[in-house]
Design a protein that fits this description.
The complex is a heterodimer of chains A (about 475) and B (about 230).
Chain A lengths: L20 E2 L14 H9 L3 H13 L3 H12 L2 E2 L10 H4 L8 H7 L1 H44 L8 H15 L1 H11 L3 H29 L5 H66 L4 H20 L9 H15 L5 E6 L6 H20 L4 E7 L3 E8 L14 H12 L4 E7 L3 E9 L2 H12 L20
Parallel strand pairs in A: 1-2, 3-4
Antiparallel strand pairs in A: 4-5, 5-7, 6-7
Helix pairs in contact in A: 1-2, 2-3, 6-7, 7-9, 10-11, 12-13, 13-14
Chain B lengths: L18 E6 L3 H10 L4 E7 L2 H11 L3 E5 L9 H8 L1 H4 L4 E6 L4 H10 L3 E4 L4 H12 L4 E2 L1 H11 L18 H11 L4 H8 L3 H17 L3 H9 L4
Helix pairs in contact in B: 2-3, 3-5, 5-10, 5-11, 7-8, 8-10, 9-10
Classes of the chains: A alpha/beta (about 475), B alpha/beta (about 230).
Chain lengths: ~475, ~230
C-alpha cells in the first residue's frame, strides 16, 4: 500500500498512525482547512490530502454523504497530532522533565515561565478566537446547503414550512458541536486565566445551541398544534430531559473521574520515562567512563563534578531560556572554570536575578578574571556571591590564600588592574580588591543596573517580551514575531 | 564545597567533647562515609535509615545532635522534616537537628529548618567542617552555610527596602541581620563576619539565631510557599 512520507519514517513498516485530527494551534495545524478531518485521514491512510478532500467533495454530491461522513469523523475523532504515533512523547517532554510544581509553585515560583507563556497566549488568542467563529459559520453553511440539497433531490418545495425549523435546529446542533474543537484546543493553548473566559463562551455557545435546537424541533413538530398544548408538551419534554440528566449523573461523574485518573497515570508514566532516559543518557554513561578511567584521579574527579553539576541543574534548577538570566550565566561561567582548572570547586551563591545587559556581561567578565586569579594565586575554598537588587549588581569573589599587596604588583601586570578593575570602572561600576595576609583575597565588584531602562532596550533589540525581570510579570507584552 | 562558619570557641566550653550524634541517612554507603570522616570531637552513638527508625533512635539515645538527611523514606512521606516534627517533644530537652543533604532546592532547606532544625549543610562539606558544625549546633548555635544564607536573603529580600523597621518584626531582617547574612553568603566564617562588622562573635551568633527564628516563624509568602510545597502546613 502506498504510504505518505509522514507515515513511514524510521518506525515499523506495518504500523499505521492513529487517526487524529490536527488540533488547533498544535502541530500540524497548518494542514487543516475546516476541522482537520481530511488532513487526519490523509496521515492515517497515507493518501495525499487533496485526494481525501476530493473524495469528500465528490461524495457530498450523493445526498450529502461526504458531508455526513465529514461531520461523523469530526465528532468521533479526537484532535491530536496525526503525523506522530500516539505512544511517543511529544518532543518538548521527551528528555528533560519540567520541575515538579505544586499549585503554589505554579502561582508564583514559575512566574518566569508564566511570563514567557503569557506572550504565547496573547499571540494565540487573537487568531484562534477568530478561527472558531469562522468555523461555526462554515459549518452552518455546509449543513444548511446539504439539507437544501437533500430537499431539492427529494423534490420538496424548499419554502415548505418544515425547512426553516430544520435549519434552525441544525444551526443549534452546529453551535453546540463546535465545542468539540474548543475543548481540544484548551490542551494546546494551556489553562491559566484564559480558560475561565473560554469556558464561559463555551457555556454560552452550548446554551445557545440547545435553545436553537429546541426551537427548531418545536417549530417542526408543533406546526398546527395550539399554543397551550405546545407549552404543555415543552414542559413535559424539558422535565423528561432533566430526569434523564439526573439519572445519568453518577455515570457522567465516573466517566470524568476515570478520565482524570488516566491522565494522571499517563503523566506519571511520562515523568518516569523521562527520568529513566536522563539517568541512562548522562549518569550511567558517566559512571561507565569513570570506571574505565579509574586510574586517573583527576579525570575521575572532573567527570564526577561535571555530572553532579548537570544532575543538580536538572533536578533543582528552573531551566531558563539562554540569554535571560545573569544567574544562569554566572553558573555557566563557574562551571567552565571548574572544568578548566581541575581540582578545585567554587561555592556559588546567587541572590536575585535579572536579564543580562552590557553592564552585567562586563561584570561577569571581570568575575571570570577574578576567579582565574583566585585559582592561580589564592587557595581553596573559593566563594562567589552574586547579588542582584533593583539598583545594583554585586559580585564578591573570595579565596583563602595568603593574600598580597596590591601596590607591590608591577604596573605592567595587567591581570588585576586592567581586566578586573578597569573593566568594571569603565562602565561606571566600582571595584576593589581586599587582601590580608592569612585571610585571603576578596574582589568586590559593584555595577549599577538600571533594570527598567536596560530591559526596554533589550526588548527592542530582540523583539521579545523580556521587559521585566524574573519574578515580576511584565507590564507590557509586545508583539511576539515568531 | 560548603564551608560553614567555623565555631567560635566561645561556646565550645559548654559542650562536652566528644559530642554524641545519631546519624540518619537512607544510604548505608553514605552513613559509613560520614562515620569515617567525623573527627574525634564527634562520636556516632546511633544510626537510622528511615523516618520511623530515626524517630525511634532519637528517642532512645536522646543525643545532643542529630545529623539528619532531608530526603528519607518511610513515615508519612515527610522526610527529614517529619522526623523533626515527630521528635518535637525532645527539642526542649536539648536535642538539636542539623540537616545534611545533597539537595539544593529551597523547599527542602526551608522545610527542614521550619520544622525545627538548627542548621543546614550540604553533603559535600569538608569532613572537618562537618565536625565543627556538629560541635557548633551542640553548643546551641545555628549553622548557616553560605547557601542557606543565600536562601534567607532570597526569601526575605536583599535590598534596602526589605529592612525591618521594628525589632520584633518577623517578616523582615534587620539591617544588621541582613549584613551578617550577606557576609556569610560571601563565604565568611563567623569570626570573619565579626571582624568585618566590628562586633563580637557572640553578637554574630545572636544575629544568626535571630535569623533562624525568623526563618522558622515568619509567615513571609516565599517561606510559606516553600513549606506548602513540601506539605508542611
Amino acid at each position: 500500500m502506498f504510504r505518505g512520507p509522514a507515515a513511514c519514517d524510521d518506525r515499523g513498516v506495518n504500523q499505521r498512525l492513529t487517526l487524529r485530527r490536527p488540533g488547533k494551534a498544535g502541530p500540524g495545524y497548518s494542514g487543516r482547512w475546516l476541522a482537520g478531518v481530511a488532513a487526519g485521514l490523509a496521515a492515517h491512510t497515507g493518501l495525499p490530502v487533496w485526494v481525501v478532500r476530493a473524495v469528500f467533495v465528490v461524495l457530498s454530491v450523493f445526498a450529502g454523504a461526504g458531508v455526513v461522513a465529514y461531520v461523523f469523523w469530526w465528532v468521533t475523532v479526537p484532535a491530536g497530532v496525526p503525523t506522530r504515533p500516539e505512544d511517543e512523547l511529544p518532543t518538548e517532554r521527551r528528555r528533560l522533565a519540567p520541575r515538579l510544581t505544586t499549585d503554589a509553585d505554579a502561582d508564583a515560583g514559575a512566574q518566569e515561565r508564566h511570563a514567557a507563556s503569557l506572550a504565547d497566549r496573547v499571540r494565540l488568542s487573537g487568531p484562534v478566537s477568530r478561527l472558531a467563529v469562522r468555523d461555526i459559520w462554515v459549518g452552518v453553511v455546509l449543513l444548511s446547503s446539504a439539507a437544501l440539497l437533500v430537499a431539492y433531490r427529494a423534490g420538496w418545495d424548499p419554502v415548505a414550512s418544515w425547512v426553516l425549523p430544520a435549519l434552525i435546529g441544525l444551526g443549534g446542533v452546529a453551535l453546540a458541536w463546535s465545542q468539540i474543537d474548543a475543548t481540544e484546543r484548551d490542551k494546546w493553548v494551556g489553562g491559566g486565566s484564559g480558560s475561565l473566559l473560554r469556558s464561559r463562551t463555551a457555556l454560552l455557545r452550548l446554551a445557545g445551541g440547545v435553545v436553537l435546537t429546541m426551537l427548531g424541533v418545536l417549530m417542526l413538530v408543533g406546526q398546527d398544534t395550539p399554543v397551550s398544548v405546545l407549552a404543555q408538551a415543552t414542559v413535559a419534554s424539558v422535565a423528561m430531559v432533566a430526569g434523564l440528566v439526573l439519572v445519568s449523573v453518577p455515570w457522567w461523574i465516573r466517566l470524568v473521574r476515570q478520565l482524570g485518573d488516566e491522565r494522571a497515570a499517563r503523566a506519571r508514566e511520562a515523568e518516569r520515562a523521562d527520568i529513566a532516559a536522563h539517568l541512562h543518557d548522562s549518569v550511567l554513561q558517566t559512571l561507565a567512563l569513570i570506571r574505565s578511567q579509574a586510574h586517573d584521579p583527576e579525570a575521575v574527579s572532573r567527570m564526577a563534578r561535571a555530572q553532579e553539576r548537570e544532575l543538580r541543574g536538572w533536578l533543582y534548577d528552573d531551566r531558563r531560556e539562554p540569554g535571560t538570566s545573569v544567574a544562569a550565566e554566572l553558573k555557566d561561567l563557574v562551571a567552565e572554570i571548574e572544568d578548566a582548572v581541575a581540582p578545585l570547586t567554587v561555592e556559588t551563591v546567587v541572590v536575585g536575578d535579572c536579564p543580562p545587559t552590557e553592564e552585567t556581561s562586563a561584570l561577569l567578565q571581570a568575575t571570570r578574571e577574578a576567579l582565574l586569579n583566585a585559582f592561580k594565586h589564592g587557595a581553596p575554598p573559593v566563594s562567589v556571591y552574586l547579588e542582584v537588587t533593583d539598583e545594583v549588581a554585586e559580585v564578591f569573589v573570595r579565596d583563602r590564600g595568603d593574600g598580597f599587596d596590591l601596590d607591590e604588583i608591577a604596573q605592567d601586570r595587567f591581570g588585576v588592574r586592567e581586566s578586573i578593575l578597569g573593566r568594571v570602572r569603565r562602565r561606571e561600576g566600582s571595584a576593589e580588591v581586599v587582601s590580608r595576609p592569612g585571610w585571603g583575597t576578596e574582589v568586590r565588584l559593584r555595577m549599577p543596573v538600571d533594570r527598567q531602562g536596560n530591559g526596554d532596550k533589550k526588548t527592542e533589540k530582540n523583539g521579545r517580551s523580556r521587559a521585566a525581570t524574573p519574578g515580576t510579570v511584565p507590564a507590557t507584552v509586545e508583539g511576539a514575531t515568531r | 564545597m560548603t564551608t560553614p562558619a567555623t565555631p567560635s570557641g566561645s561556646t565550645q566550653s559548654s559542650v562536652s567533647i566528644p559530642v554524641p550524634v545519631v546519624l540518619v541517612d537512607d544510604h548505608h554507603l553514605f552513613r559509613t562515609g560520614v562515620r569515617a570522616s567525623l573527627d574525634d570531637r564527634v562520636t556516632v552513638v546511633g544510626e537510622a535509615f528511615d523516618v520511623d527508625s530515626a524517630v525511634a533512635a532519637v528517642h532512645e539515645h536522646r543525643p545532643p545532635v542529630v545529623l539528619l538527611d532531608v530526603h528519607l523514606p518511610g513515615g508519612n512521606g515527610g522526610g527529614g522534616a517529619e522526623v523533626v516534627q515527630r521528635c518535637a517533644d525532645l527539642l526542649t530537652e536539648g536535642v538539636r537537628f542539623l540537616a545534611l543533604s545533597v539537595s539544593d532546592a529551597a523547599e527542602d532547606v526551608v522545610s527542614v529548618i521550619r520544622a525545627g532544625a538548627r542548621g543546614y549543610v550540604t553533603k559535600n562539606i569538608a569532613p572537618s567542617d562537618l565536625s565543627s558544625a556538629v560541635v557548633q549546633v551542640a553548643g546551641g548555635d545555628a549553622v548557616f552555610s553560605p547557601r542557606l544564607a543565600g536562601f534567607v536573603l532570597d526569601a526575605f529580600g536583599a535590598s534596602a527596602n526589605d529592612i525591618a523597621v521594628a525589632d520584633d518584626e518577623l517578616d523582615r531582617l534587620s539591617k544588621r541581620e541582613q549584613e551578617v547574612m550577606r557576609l556569610i553568603a560571601r563565604g565568611y566564617s563567623y569570626r570573619e563576619v565579626a571582624g568585618e562588622l566590628f562586633i563580637s562573635i557572640k553578637t554574630v551568633e545572636t544575629h544568626v539565631s535571630a535569623v533562624l527564628r525568623k526563618l522558622q516563624l515568619s509567615s513571609r509568602y516565599e517561606l510559606t510557599r516553600w513549606a506548602v510545597a513540601r506539605r508542611l502546613l
